[in-house]
Write a structure and sequence with these properties.
Blueprint: E1 2-9, E2 12-16, H1 35-56, H2 66-91, E3 96-102, H3 107-139, H4 151-175, E4 178-184, H5 185-192, H6 198-212, H7 217-224
Parallel strand pairs: 1-3, 3-4
Antiparallel strand pairs: 1-2
Helix pairs in contact: 1-2, 2-4, 3-4, 5-6
């Protein structure tokens, strides 16, 4: 697993990696048996559709009715949260990983930054897991009284499970994963772009993304970078 320590500010970094999307379920397959499994199956289908729309950037007609708007907004938010937590979810199964860091910083500094971020993620997801677990227990009885897939109820289910998986990923990265460290000149080039005008920065940013073979790095950097 390759993880990149991306400079997004004069003294700020974000961990970044690109994980292939999960394989879609076979649409010709029979729906699973059981009420809860069927509802979860339908919910996963809606999530997959929402994430495909987010990644493609397709503009769709605004849904009609308050229930449809709530559903669409919830699914868009969940799809975005999936993208943000995918690194930690994937890390929980990794016995080894490589951290690529800007070559104008020392390896010990990159180690400290990695551990600081994973430690922060561990504490954050531990606290949120406790909160959403309580909410999930309170809202679970209402799942059986709402016709169709209960998006709001499944939202809390997603949050609880998502924080649990992220917690495991952060703990794995801190305690179990064998890390190697590799200086990376293109990441240093990203630091030099922080103060550039967006028009001048764009072609250089695409060149870095191409050199690193990271398809979505441009959008991530533009969203996360903080100009000096």
């Amino acid at each position: 697993m390759d993880v990149y320590l991306v400079p997004v500010g004069p003294q700020r970094y974000e961990l970044y990696c690109e994980i292939p999307d999960d394989e879609p379920e076979d649409p010709a397959g029979e729906p699973p048996k059981g009420f809860f499994k069927r509802q979860m199956h339908r919910f996963r289908e809606m999530l997959a559709e929402a994430e495909r729309d987010r990644r493609s950037g397709t503009v769709q007609e605004a849904p009609r009715g308050w229930a449809a708007r709530v559903r669409a907004t919830t699914l868009r938010w969940v799809a975005h949260a999936i993208a943000e937590q995918r690194l930690l979810w994937h890390l929980r199964n990794q016995q080894s990983a490589c951290l690529h860091f800007p070559d104008d910083m020392t390896e010990p500094a990159s180690v400290n930054e990695l551990r600081d971020q994973l430690g922060h993620d561990f504490r954050k997801h531990r606290n949120w897991l406790a909160f959403h677990s309580v909410v999930l227990v309170v809202t679970t009885p209402f799942l059986f009284w709402v016709p169709g897939p209960n998006v709001i109820g499944y939202y809390f289910l997603f949050r609880a499970v998502g924080h649990f998986l992220s917690l495991r990923g952060a703990r794995q990265g801190l305690n179990e994963t064998a890390w190697t460290y590799r200086p990376c000149e293109p990441l240093t080039e990203l630091r030099r772009m922080l103060t550039l005008d967006p028009v001048l920065r764009e072609p250089r940013l695409h060149a870095v993304a191409q050199a690193l073979r990271l398809e979505h790095l441009v959008k991530f950097f533009e969203r996360s970078a903080v100009s000096a």
